[in-house]
């Protein structure tokens, strides 16, 4: 079993600020750090640290070979990452004293991967595998069709949220992960409640209130309470949650157990500053006391 991740790879430039910028404001930062990021890279690292075999499908520029090396160090299979002429994607992250953030993304090579390259990357995939993607790459519908045609279980993390992008792939999904605001936006765009959309499993993260799992086949709805932590940096927490969730499901764990494991990982993550480089491993997650 493996997780195939069509995902973004970014250089994350994180600036500490007294408060998030207002329109027209100029503000001096108090600190700067660079690390590996991108929703795709974060999810690949999280799933790998949770014990899954992860094969990343993505792209960087010539300036991003360090990111491939970093992903390899973290246990991700990087053989299907292309090096293209476009610059590597990057994110400018503002992080305030309350651990809230604003993020500006330059897609770069993340939006330049060919469908042929994605198809080649899925050539060894089987129905025992997962395919996950997010809204930070191109060819999402085409990739989901390729994965679905091979019998993979298809998961989508609906961020950065775009209603048109989500509705385009909804018929192909087995699992949809989104936050509470995104769930409301999807309901508005489709005219359907989140409980009735045509996806078997839907997980809605609720921030400090935990998360909700909806199985649309059985109509079961289950809420999971948040774990008590003091957040330092919320960047990458949702990606960590999704990566751990998929790793648990890939190992054959039931959905409730996988969600609880993912919540533990995300709760630890928000107590750390950074993204992919500080995602906790499975030993930390299982042994941590809250």
TrEMBL record:
Its EC number is 2.7.1.15. K(+) binds at residues 233, 235, 269, 272, 274. One of its GO terms (molecular function) is ribokinase activity. Pathway: Carbohydrate metabolism; D-ribose degradation; D-ribose 5-phosphate from beta-D-ribopyranose: step 2/2. Pfam families: PfkB (PF00294). ATP binds at residues 179, 205-210, 238-239. GO terms for cellular component: cytoplasm. Activated by a monovalent cation that binds near, but not in, the active site. The most likely occupant of the site in vivo is potassium. Ion binding induces a conformational change that may alter substrate affinity. It is found in: Cytoplasm. Substrate binds at residues 10-12, 38-42, 136, 239. Residues 6-280 form the Carbohydrate kinase PfkB domain. Keywords: ATP-binding, Carbohydrate metabolism, Cytoplasm, Kinase, Magnesium, Metal-binding, Nucleotide-binding, Potassium, Transferase. It comes from the Bacteria. One of its GO terms (biological process) is D-ribose catabolic process. Catalyzes the phosphorylation of ribose at O-5 in a reaction requiring ATP and magnesium. The resulting D-ribose-5-phosphate can then be used either for sythesis of nucleotides, histidine, and tryptophan, or as a component of the pentose phosphate pathway. PANTHER family: RIBOKINASE, SUGAR KINASE. Homodimer. This is Ribokinase. It comes from Alloyangia pacifica. The gene is rbsK.
